Amino acid sequence: MNREGVGKVALVTGGASGIGRDTAFAFARDGAAVVVADADVAGGAETVRLIETRYDAQALFIEVDVTDAASVEAMVRSTVERFGALDMAFNNAGVPDRAASLHVSTQENWDRVMAVNLEGVWHCMKAELDHMLTAGKGAIVNNASRSGLVGVPSDGVYGAAKHGVVGLTKAAAIEFAARGIRVNAVCPGLVETALTRARFGDELSARAKLANPLGRMAQPEEIANAVVWLCSDAASFVVGVALPVDGGATAR
Ligand SMILES: NC(=O)c1ccc[n+]([C@@H]2O[C@H](COP(=O)([O-])OP(=O)(O)OC[C@H]3O[C@@H](n4cnc5c(N)ncnc54)[C@H](O)[C@@H]3O)[C@@H](O)[C@H]2O)c1
Prior knowledge:
alpha/beta; Rossmann fold
């Protein structure tokens, strides 16, 4: 198997859990050195332990709060200090929208969802681009959502943040393509993670059957595979896409 990640350094925010953890595994399987960054120290340390146990790859946990620009800058600085480079970044940390509908959503809910899911991605892109522009190369993938492409009932605030992530992705892709940096986004449909369990509880399996033409949720690894491909040289001509990985949900 061609391990294209060998000699490269990947950073995954939200790497303590769900899609981020499986993407950290996928980068490690591909041979990259992986930085797992998260606010959840125990979960992040566990991802690193699992990488070291399962894969022949280096891994480091960095505690970060993506809502805090200084914390994010320190994350990128520590990555480069430890591994000497930052080639690939997956800006994935996110929180669910606790409100049932935008008309009953609170200011607190809006502030939290926007701070983590939109502003957090902007902080990460700023710090990563600072390094990648100097290096003259790099690949960034942001985690948006199906709710970043279409209107999803009950996802008003979350969907506004995720549409914002798609906007940031496209603008940065155009601005920095000629300087050697590819920026893209993935737009997952329903994925079986702690976030969806917290959001939908007992309704989850019923929702999954109706969510897309496949009639099931994605496993986190199915999103991870798309992220690793978007970061790889196999996707060298792919710039500024918001790629649905949603079992066909947005095709109908
Ligand atoms: N699960 C889905 O169905 C689905 C669908 C579309 C998009 N997404 C997006 O995928 C991403 C990952 O979601 P998941 O389902 O794997 O959820 P998850 O809850 O399993 O993982 C999210 C991770 O982000 C971390 N995090 C939260 N706030 C943070 C902060 N301020 N700073 C640093 N880390 C923070 C959490 O600690 C957690 O480890 C999110 O951006 C989410 O919006 C998920």
